[in-house]
Automatic annotation (TrEMBL):
EC number(s) given by UniProt: 2.7.7.39
Keywords from the UniProt entry: Nucleotidyltransferase, Transferase
Organism of provenance: Geobacillus thermodenitrificans
Keyword Lyase: no
Protein name: Glycerol-3-phosphate cytidylyltransferase
UniProt-listed PANTHER family: FAD SYNTHASE
InterPro entries: Archaeal_FAD_synthase, Cyt_trans-like, G3P_cytidylTrfase, Rossmann-like_a/b/a_fold
Length: 131
């Protein structure tokens, strides 16, 4: 069985997220999503609209996602890859090159972002329409 992992906050879940998860799952037989915890987001100076548990529940409802695990720090990736016997690590291409240190442990693939959608754009659009 080929196992794939990806990481993210997945706040304000949108069709770009679904597209990423679908493409990641198509690369293997089992997709694990490492979801940033609320505490880790605070360390990154990010605030999520939804709590970790709410975001986890939404991800678990998506048919492409087989398992959701917590992401609590930047440094856990090598451990996760080894612990979960990961074959492929997937991230959006806006992270290109940042996770090449995982190449001795698994295949690293950077997928193109879905054009025309992002959480940042949604937040900006909501501010314009409601501000």
């Amino acid at each position: 069985m080929k196992k794939v992992i990806t990481y993210g906050t997945f706040d304000l879940l949108h069709w770009g997220h679904i597209n990423l998860l679908k493409r990641a799952r198509e690369l293997g037989d089992y997709l694990i999503v490492a979801l940033s915890t609320d505490e880790f987001n605070r360390q990154k100076n990010k605030t999520s609209y939804y709590t970790y548990e709410q975001r986890k529940m939404m991800l678990e409802a998506i048919r492409y996602v087989d398992q959701v695990i917590p992401e609590t720090c930047w440094e856990q990736k090598i451990y996760d890859v080894q612990e979960h016997n990961i074959d492929i690590f997937v991230m959006g291409d806006d992270w290109k090159g940042r996770f090449d240190f995982l190449k001795p442990y698994c295949q690293v693939i950077y997928l193109p972002r879905t054009v025309g959608i992002s959480t940042t754009k949604i937040k900006e659009d909501l501010m314009v329409h409601n501000g």
